[in-house]
């Protein structure tokens, strides 16, 4: 699933999300609404962000970031759809869900984290953010909305920061004629 993000048709997006029926609990964001879905081709659950209004610059920023960011603690962009009527990005959805669900357990979530597990998660988040700010090959990238509901946990509790960007965070990165981005 790694590599270039997949360009998906609107029909595939509608199939993945079952016509946008299951909203993801991702906090409040004025730029998009999150949905859960299933990408049968990869046998994987996904998070689908459907942008509101004219958010094409944000989707472009996420695509450029996906082409340059490769880190064990960054949740990469799997696919996207962009047309005159809709902009959508698709991310893998790690099985354990978001960090806020793990730290604030509910009756249906019985996972209790030990101090060492919490420390491992915190270090992983710091490594991912450090990569975005200091080590990304295309230059520093500001996350834009680093919150507990934007950090996913894999089955082994490795944190995966979803690369949520705001269009202005990529103002210093421009496209070259080959389609790659450069500072």
From TrEMBL:
<dbReference type="GO" id="GO:0005524">
    <property type="term" value="F:ATP binding"/>
</dbReference>
<keyword id="KW-0547">Nucleotide-binding</keyword>
<protein>
    <recommendedName>
        <fullName>Protein kinase domain-containing protein</fullName>
    </recommendedName>
</protein>
<feature type="domain" description="Protein kinase">
    <location>
        <begin position="20"/>
        <end position="183"/>
    </location>
</feature>
<keyword id="KW-0418">Kinase</keyword>
<dbReference type="Pfam" id="PF07714">
    <property type="entry name" value="PK_Tyr_Ser-Thr"/>
</dbReference>
<keyword id="KW-0597">Phosphoprotein</keyword>
<dbReference type="GO" id="GO:0004672">
    <property type="term" value="F:protein kinase activity"/>
</dbReference>
<dbReference type="InterPro" id="IPR001245">
    <property type="entry name" value="Ser-Thr/Tyr_kinase_cat_dom"/>
</dbReference>
<dbReference type="InterPro" id="IPR011009">
    <property type="entry name" value="Kinase-like_dom_sf"/>
</dbReference>
<keyword id="KW-0808">Transferase</keyword>
<dbReference type="InterPro" id="IPR000719">
    <property type="entry name" value="Prot_kinase_dom"/>
</dbReference>
<keyword id="KW-0067">ATP-binding</keyword>
<dbReference type="InterPro" id="IPR052101">
    <property type="entry name" value="Plant_StressResp_Kinase"/>
</dbReference>
């Amino acid at each position: 699933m790694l590599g270039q993000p997949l360009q998906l048709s609107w029909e595939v997006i509608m199939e993945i999300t079952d016509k946008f029926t299951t909203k993801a609990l991702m906090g409040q964001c004025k730029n998009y609404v999150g949905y859960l879905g299933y990408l049968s081709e990869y046998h994987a659950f996904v998070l689908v962000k459907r942008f509101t209004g004219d958010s094409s610059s944000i989707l472009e920023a996420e695509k450029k970031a996906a082409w340059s960011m490769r880190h064990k603690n960054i949740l990469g962009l799997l696919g996207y759809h962009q047309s005159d009527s809709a902009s959508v990005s698709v991310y893998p959805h790690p099985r354990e869900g978001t960090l806020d669900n793990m730290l604030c357990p509910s009756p249906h979530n019985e996972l209790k984290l030990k101090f060492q597990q919490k420390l491992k998660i915190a270090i992983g988040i710091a490594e991912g953010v450090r990569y975005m700010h200091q080590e990304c090959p295309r230059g520093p990238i500001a996350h834009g909305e680093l919150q507990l509901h934007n950090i996913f946990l894999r089955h082994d509790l490795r944190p995966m920061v979803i690369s949520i960007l705001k269009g202005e965070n990529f103002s210093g990165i421009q496209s070259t004629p080959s389609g790659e981005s450069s500072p």
